[in-house]
Amino acid sequence: MTERWKKGGPTGVAFLLAAILLVAGGCGDSDLEEARQDAREAKATVKKLELSLDRAMREIADLKNELSVVRETRDELQRQADQLVQERDQASVLAQQAEQVITHLSTRAEGQTSATEAMRRQIEDLKAVVADQQALIEELQKGGAIEPADLEDVDPNAPEGGPDL
Question: Is the dihedral of CA 153, 155, 161, 165 positive or negative?
Answer without folding.
Answer: negative
